[in-house]
Amino acid sequence: MWPLSSTIEFSLAAELAIALVLGIGFGVALERAGFGSARKLTAVFYLHDMAVVKVMFTAVVTTMVGLFALSTLGLLDLGALYIEPTNLLAQGVGGLLFGAGFLIGGYCPGTSLAAIASGRKDAVLFALGMLAGVYAYAEFTPQLDDWYKAHSLGELTLPALTGVGMGWWTLAFVAFLLVAAWGINLIEGRAPRDTGRQAGA
Amino acid sequence: MNTVTQRTPASRERNPGHVSARPFMNPYLAGVLLGFVLLATYVVTGRGLGATAGFAALATWLAGLVSPASVQSSIVHLKYWNDGAPLLNWTLFLLCGAFIGAAVSAWQARRFAVVIERGPRISDGQRLALAFAGGFIAACGAKLAKGCTSGQALTGSSILNAGSLLFLLAVFVAGFGLAHLVRKEWL
Q: Which DSSP symbol is given to A122?
């Protein structure tokens, strides 16, 4: 039964080779989506280009459907998957900070690599800023990790929280994606592309 | 050097730097592709994707070069120390793969261009400074939240992790909330 890691003891070399191969797929997907471009990534916050929302939400729903289907078929043990413990304050405040950094910096950690690979010089600076940030965290505020653990709610998923099974949640997310895609399509069809304003800029 | 500013709608839609660049993939199709990569990662490793941990491992390696004592005094550094081989980090190898994959993809689609991406109303220098500052802030947020767009927003949300969904929501709240304030950087 999957995940493979629960039945096979991978050697370090095998694990790193797997990481490299999966990473190549990750990088191709990000670049193909246009996520090697800061202006395309940040355009979502000005409602000029909703690609970020479309790609991310479709990816989440695709994986969710896949996980649910594989587990229903008895191929995958959901209980064996790693789930990051929830700390609501950390994810709330951290998410706000991260969103600010994303908008100001123009990238997120993964997409900055795709952008460097696409030649974007600003992405190099973003990655250096990331490096400085994680370094500063480890040097000056490592005790935040202890605080996180002390106030963690443990593994907390929506099915566990609500008593509504993953199948229903998956169905709801699929429905939400379809409605959102329809709505976005409607808005995009109505609003003229931002060409007029661009030409005047 | 080539600086990205807004041009015709067509070139903006494709890629700023290159006239002959191919259009991007349909976003929903790209999302399915990204979703399959994430699903494969779950099936093989039992964990999802990540990115910030790769940066953290690199930072710990640098700390070890500068001052091994500082590594021992931080529980965060020790988490990535890996018995003196911090570079043999799973997520760091994932990032190396992502770099290779994106480079090949960009080259194949003729999207590679050495440019600085910014709006027309700020200078290159200002944009580079903001890129660094943004990276620093994003790193602090990702460390606090135990994950970034990869580890929390994609990986966690797809298994309905409550904290991950809150993170995803918070990212967009901050992005939309601050968008007007920093519009000069992009528009």
A: H
